[in-house]
Amino acid sequence: MGPDEEREVIDALRSGWITTGPKAKQFEKEFAAYVGARHALAVAHCTGALHLALWALGLGAGDEVITTPFTFTATAEVMGYLGVRPVFVDVDPGTFNISPARVEEALESGRHKRARAILPVHFAGHPCDMDRLLAIARQYDLKIVEDAAHAAGAARHLDGRGMTKIGTIGDLTCFSFYATKNFTSAEGGMITTADDALADKIAVASLHGMNKDAWKRYDKSGSWYYEIHDLGFKYNLSDVHAAIGLAQLRRADGFLRRRTDIAMRYNRAFRECDALQIPYSEAGIEHAWHLYVLRLKPDLLRIGRGQFVEILRERGVGTSVHCIPLHTMHYYQRAYGYHNGEFPVAEDIYERCLSLPIYPSMTDEDVEYVIDTVGSIVRENRR
Hints:
Elements lengths: L2 H13 L6 H14 L3 E5 L2 H11 L7 E4 L6 H9 L2 E4 L11 H9 L6 E5 L10 H11 L2 E5 L7 E4 L3 E4 L6 E5 L12 E5 L2 H10 L8 H5 L20 H11 L2 H19 L5 E2 L7 E2 L5 E5 L8 H10 L15 H7 L7 H9 E4 L7 H17 L3
């Protein structure tokens, strides 16, 4: 956060518009231009974006959505709001993204005749194999809702379209601007789509199903009268949050360049270390590098992932683990009958992975300290 964010927030406060108003509309306009989308709709968070997207498609009780267990709970949690069953399939061992081959297997099995959509997650900022997923969706008449919480600014080469920004590929794409994301509005999210009808439906539903935005009701040309046209939710984004988002969006390309630089430094440092496995990155993609995920090779180390993380913490390097597979969690086992061992690739990644610090304000000295610390732990604990 810096002076640009401060100026935007102060401008919002002094304007008198602190809830949804002109800043939110400007944020939508500028984000749509950033990804090249026809419509962008600002909402309170990515969880709300995912919920609205599935709701707008008309999904309900008994329907199924095919997705990945290797994600944060919000991806599948919102399906429970609608009575939709999450159908988990395993992930690709390189990208950690949903495996198109496993999606095809699930559909070919004949067990998922109620499947209505595929919900791919662009994990860590690496875009999914969208050409294959689009082909599967066409074959089975499914919609695609992309979870791009990690992937603002990412792009992928598509057949016939060339390099294409995430946010313009599926039927609907959901972004997160939570505090840890590549750029932030503190809390917030965005839905992009090329579908006019879906955009209109979501715009109304995001604020109680009212036919007028709050700021349109109270500006000089507005009217006190409003109508409720449909079921609605309280998912609007305030102008104070949008003001932060506007300033951050204008810095997004610089943030991405720095994240990429840090990721490349890590790659160069760890590539030749046989006890570590660096992130895989395919040709024909622009990675957002929301996360930098290392995998340990336990057969070459005397300590496990948990101990490795703890030693890093003791030496001043904060890490986390992304993600705990959802099918291993009590709720998903109780509610949907999943159990440990069903998705071995996701479980293997989880047992060996840790996320190193990667953020734009890291100095070169910070990056070198992380590299040196990881290297020293490996040397001290080789088998």
